[in-house]
Task: inverse folding
């Protein structure tokens, strides 16, 4: 046996084509490659829907899982994936992202966590990426591989975006990039309070382009609901941005109870009081007593956070009807008179060891993320989406 040099296929010397087929070999090779690509695309017939948002804590998780549950009830086999985990326990990347675990439970999935959340987008990860130690190409391959594993034999795969839609640009994996990479259509979750908020919606619509299926406005306050429907929605649709609907604000979804807040902060309860009251905002008692009283009387469903040694602020908070609880920082215990008055009024007093600034940051994070992110939250979101949005249009495979 002798080695022989590979030979090119025979061609007509005048036309440069294959004499048997009459085609240009190079053209045939290109067409073969294109056909292979088309075959690969056709194999990925799972409908991918990416739920992205303009900001963190807009109800994106509840909406994603509610849509998946609705599709599941309609007979579709569904999957879930969060390509970038952004809710972290530590800078080095230990994930605190409960969303994939909740999805696995509610949707009865058997998927592995490394597929449900292939990238943990921690500060350390970002630093390594900036130093060139994370290869964007390899990361994209990891996301695609996880997607293909989760999409196998599924009618739909619901993708949850990571925080704000533009997070991930350092490694070329923003939600815009992911939508393109996984051939997903996009449902954008947005809040609305003032007309200027629409600038952000238009910017996102421009970024997603034709992949944007439409917008769902969530947690819309009563005062903003009518202007949104009568002015904003027609304006957006005139600009080519479909709107699927607007979900009104609901206390059980936008706030946390005093009891949930106490648990999340690791607080000691000095006065039990009415711990099932909802907290939607915070007031910091860093001013004088007269100013504090005026400020507290204007607030509603608030927790007052102040030093445990600020007796005059404690008194002012107890006189304000919109205060739902008093959170005392620094581990200080209030006077017996304050505890007695709070007990008489049924106002909970919580004590934490952390300083005021740290406590405010942690408390705001609890309210933003919503400790009500559980099966009951998703159940209620299903009802709200069915009542206030065009769910059929959202799920329509285009």
Result:
């Amino acid at each position: 046996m002798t080695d022989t040099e590979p030979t090119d296929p025979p061609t007509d010397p005048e036309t440069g084509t294959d004499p048997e087929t009459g085609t240009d070999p190079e053209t045939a090779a290109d067409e073969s490659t294109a056909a292979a690509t088309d075959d690969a695309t056709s194999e990925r017939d799972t409908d991918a829907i990416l739920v992205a948002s303009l900001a963190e804590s807009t109800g994106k998780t509840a909406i994603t899982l509610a849509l998946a549950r609705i599709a599941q009830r309609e007979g579709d086999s569904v999957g879930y994936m969060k390509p970038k985990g952004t809710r972290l326990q530590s800078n080095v990347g230990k994930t605190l992202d409960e969303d994939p675990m909740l999805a696995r439970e509610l949707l009865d999935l058997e998927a592995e966590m490394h597929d449900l959340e292939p990238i943990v987008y921690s500060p350390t990860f970002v630093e390594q990426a900036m130093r060139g130690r994370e290869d964007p190409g390899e990361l994209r391959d990891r996301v695609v591989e996880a997607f293909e594993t989760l999409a196998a034999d599924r009618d739909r795969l619901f993708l949850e975006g990571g925080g704000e839609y533009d997070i991930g640009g350092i490694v070329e994996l923003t939600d815009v990039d992911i939508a393109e990479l996984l051939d997903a259509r996009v449902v954008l979750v947005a809040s609305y309070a003032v007309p200027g908020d629409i600038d952000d919606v238009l910017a996102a619509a421009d970024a997603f382009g034709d992949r944007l299926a439409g917008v769902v406005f969530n947690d819309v306050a009563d005062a903003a609901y009518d202007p949104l429907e009568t002015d904003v929605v027609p304006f957006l649709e005139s600009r080519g941005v479909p709107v699927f609907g607007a979900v009104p604000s609901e206390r059980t979804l936008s706030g946390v109870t005093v009891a949930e807040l106490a648990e999340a902060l690791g607080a000691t309860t000095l006065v039990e009081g009415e711990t099932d009251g909802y907290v939607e905002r915070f007031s910091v008692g860093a001013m004088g007593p007269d100013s504090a009283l005026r400020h507290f009387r204007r607030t509603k469903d608030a927790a007052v956070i102040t030093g445990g040694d600020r007796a005059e602020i404690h008194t002012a908070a107890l006189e304000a009807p919109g205060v739902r609880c008093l959170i005392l920082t620094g581990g200080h215990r209030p006077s017996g008179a304050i505890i007695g008055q709070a007990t008489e009024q049924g106002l909970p007093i919580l004590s934490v060891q952390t300083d005021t600034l740290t406590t405010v940051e942690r408390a705001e994070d609890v309210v933003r993320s919503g400790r009500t992110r559980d099966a009951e939250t998703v159940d209620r979101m299903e009802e709200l989406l069915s009542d206030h949005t065009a769910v059929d249009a959202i799920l329509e495979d285009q």
Q: What stands out?
A: The radius of gyration is 27 Å. The first strand starts at residue 47 and ends at 53. The chain has two domains: 44-253+372-395, 256-369.
